[in-house]
Structures are given as structure tokens and as C-alpha cells.
Amino acid sequence: MTATLTRGAERIQAAFEQANAQGRAAFIPFMTAGYPTAGAFPAVADALLEHADLLEVGIPYSDPLGDGPTIQRASEQALAGGTSTRRTLALVKELRARHDKPIAVMTYVNPIYAVGPREFMRLAADAGVDGLILPDLPPDQDIEIADLAAEYGLAVTFLIAPTSTPERVRLVAEACTGFLYAVSVTGVTGAREGSALGEVPAMLALAREYARVPVAVGFGVKDAATAAQVAQVADGVVVGSAFINAIREGQDVGALAAEIARGCQR
To answer: Of the listed 50, 53, 56, 144, which one is catalytic?
Structure first.
């Protein structure tokens, strides 16, 4: 599969370039669509977008194998509240009417096939989505999804982990058109104690031999201190569970986003 530069890819790469020119790693907050409720989600997303370079919106899914308990519970709550795949894209469309920053949708493959791959891409493009983050799709196993995404102007992002072989890193890195998502630790998402780096520096050195896109790091980043560690070695910093925990505990999501964004300075 040959990587194709699309409208979405251009917007995402421009966001990374702007962050780098300002001496920082791009800040990429994640939030599950429809969390804590479909009605409250837009205000949460607005607060994150105020400080973000790119917003990652998760489609709620009943079997999110790569997500830890925090995001799993958020997905369950959003699904119980009626946030479907189509409703997620409608929420993104509402955000796009107010914001011009890039928005990427994180989804597992099953929700795409439940809607129908072409219809999903059409709806995503119509909503103003810039890219798709595909945690359970090996790029060599379903070329149709990536090709359809490119046809509709959407960038694609795949994941690598510390356990990825050099051959897998090369395959994934060359297939990404938005950014390459490097998982800092083996396992599922969620804030962790200690360093957020783990085996990241060696993994990134290998990834950069093949990647033609920026490399962002996620899993385990929970605050400004851990964001600062990652910002020293990565082009972007992804933070998710910390914001969901903040909402559950009644904290100010915007204030936390501002704090973590400051941590992305180099």
C-alpha cells in the first residue's frame, strides 16, 4: 500500500509543523464521544480544543481491546446514553462548525463495517474529520479501509508498540499518512506511575528510519511532568484517560489541558 497525501494529512501535518516551529511537541488530547453525556460532550471537547493541536475523538465501542478500564467505562456510559457511530460523527460535525483545528476519530474496525466502509468514510468526510486512528487494523490485512479513507481525503494512523518487530515497525510507519502512533508501554491505555518513556526512545529511533509522518506517543501520559518526558523525544503527546478521570472526579478539564499543554514545551 502506498501512502497518499490527502486533505486530512496536510492539515494534520501542518499542525505538527506549527507546534515544532513554536518549540513544542503537538498536544493531542483524547475524549470518548458522548462522554460524560452526549449533551455535555461538546463543552468538554471545546475545552480540550482550546489547548490542543489536534483532537482525538473516540467512537464508543463495546469491545475496545486496546483500551484500559477508564476508557472502557467511558465507552459503556456513552453507549448507554445513545452515542452510536453515526452520532459520534454528527457530534464531530458540530465541533467542526466551531473549530478549524484537525480532528481525528479513533475507531476499531467493527464500527466501520457496521456502518459500511464507504458510507462510514462519506459520513466522516462530510463531518469534517481529518484522520482515522485504527488500533486494531494491521495495514497489511485490510487495504480497502486505508484506500477508501484516502479517496475521501482522510489520513490514516496505525499503532506500533515496544513489542513490534522491526519488520512490523517498517510496515506500519510506511502506511501512516496522518501520524504514527507509538504506544509507550505494552498493554492497554491508562495513566501509570513512574516514567512515561519506557522503551520509547529506541522505538522512535527505529520508527523514524521509515516514517514519513510525525510520530506521537501515548498510553501512560497523565500530567505535565509525564508529557514533558515524552515531548523531549516525540513529535506529539497523546493524553486520554487523565481527562476522563478528571471528568469523573469533577475537575476542570480545561485547566488540566492547559497544564499538560504547557508540559509539551521543549
So the answer is: 56
Closest alpha carbon to 16 in 202, 183, 212: 212
Indicate whether 1 belongs to any domain.
no
Contact 54, 103 (CB under 8 A): yes
> Would 2 be classed as within a structural domain?
no
Are the beta carbons of 28 and 52 closer than 8 angstroms? yes
d(CA 105, CA 140): 20
Region of 4 (left: φ > 0; alpha: ψ -120 to 50; beta: rest) is beta
Residues of the chain with pLDDT under 70: 1-5, 66, 186-198
* Domain count of the fold of the chain: 1
Contact (CB, 8 A) for 178 and 9: yes
Q: Per the domain annotation, does 192 fall within a domain?
A: yes
46, 53, 67, 144: which is the annotated catalytic residue? Answer: 67
189 is a domain residue: yes
| Phi, psi dihedral angles at 225 (to 5 degrees) | -65, -45
Domain that holds residue 203: 7-263
| Residue pLDDT, tens place only, 148-204 | 999 999 999 999 999 999 999 999 999 999 999 999 875 444 444 444 566 789 899
Query: What CATH number corresponds to the domain at position 151?
Result: 3.20.20.70
Q: Edge to edge, what strands does the sheet with 236-239 contain?
A: 155-157, 131-133, 103-106, 55-58, 26-32, 236-239, 215-218, 180-183, 159-160
Residue 67 is a catalytic residue: yes
Checking DSSP bridges between strand 26-32 and strand 155-157, what pairing results, if any? unpaired
